[in-house]
Structure formats: structure tokens, C-alpha cells
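Residues determine shape. We examine one folded chain.
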Amino acid sequence: MKLEWMPVFWLALTLGAYIFSRWIYRRTGRYLLSPLILVPVLLLAVAVPMNTAYAEYSADTHWLMLVLGPVTVAFAVPIWQQRTLLARYWPALLLGMIAGSVASIATSFGLAKALALDSSVTMSLVPRSITTPFAMPVSSDLGGVPELTAVFVMFTGVFGAMLGGVLLKWLPLRTPLARGALFGVGAHGAGVSRAHEVGGEEGSVAGLVMVLTGLLNLFAAPLLTAIL
């Protein structure tokens, strides 16, 4: 059986870029050098001169997407760990998740229509504000392209986490619950990481809200399909 070297090359490059960016981010603490930003930049710097399309890269590194299954199952852990907080504040959390989800879906759909994007791209953009393991099946149910949705999710997380830090300085969010929910609803995984830098409780709340928002949108997918 002949060994295909390109898949090995892209897998090694992706993992190497991640390890390097994680190391440099821990040393500098600069968000622009975090893996979410630096890894795509490094991969693009190699892919563009090699004329490698995203479809080729995705095919060569498809096994990385397979780990999303175990990740999705692991999301039960923060729900169990924060069950006391969830039982105490569930009305406020539920209201915030619904409001954030509606705002995200409405703005995504409105932007897509304003730019006259086709149906598949529009439906790929709609679930951009939920974490990737949930966003991809929602995108598929809506008729979008899951791989494209993953890209939209990444950009949303990066800019959401950056903007969240600015908003904390301007908005009167004084409790860890409010500050954590801001990141969890608006910036999913990247927001959770940023929230942990703000405080341990903020990070825990952000992780809980991120998971619950993903589940809420996953269960709401059939309704969204009928509406959109």
C-alpha cells in the first residue's frame, strides 16, 4: 500500500503549528498569538504558495473532525460540575441564551440576505455563534455546508473573544455570572478561553453557557428549518 505523503504533511504541520502557537501564547500572553489566530495564519502561509485548496486540506486532515464526537460527549462534564449554579440561575441563563441565539441568527440571516448570498452559504452562516460540534450538525440540518460553518464559527469566536474584552470595560457587568455568560453566548470556545483569563468563575459560567446554548440551538434546528 503506497503511503500518501500530503495527508501526513498537513497533519504534521497542523499539529506542529498548534503546539508552537500554544507555547508562544503561554510565554507572551498576547491574544493575537493564540492558537485560534496563529495556526490558521501559519497554515495559510504554507497553503497559498502550494496552491492547496481548502477542500484538499480538509480531506487530508479529516480525522481531526472525528474528535468532535468525543468532545461533544465531554460537554456533559461542565453541566454536571455547575449543576448547583444552573439550578439557581436557570431562568436568567435561559433568557440570555434565547436572546443571544435569536440576535445571532437574525443578524446572520439579515447579513446574508443583504449580501445576496446563496442558500447554502446563508444556512452555513446562521449557526456561526455556537460551538463547532453543535454548529456543524445544525448547519447540515439547515442545508448548509458544515465545513464552511466551521470557518464562520472560528472567525466569530476570535472576534467575539476580542470584542468581549472591550465590552467588559464599557458594560456594567459586575457579576461573574454576567461576564461569563457574555463570552459563552457570543464567542463559544474562544470566549470560554478568554473568560478563564478574566476569572475562574467567569470561565466556568462561560463553559456552561456555551454548552447549553449549543444544545438549545441543536434542538431548535427543526424549527429553524421550517422558519428559514
About this structure: Residues 72-227 form one domain. The CA atoms of residues 83 and 113 lie 40 Å apart. The chain has two domains: 5-66, 72-227.
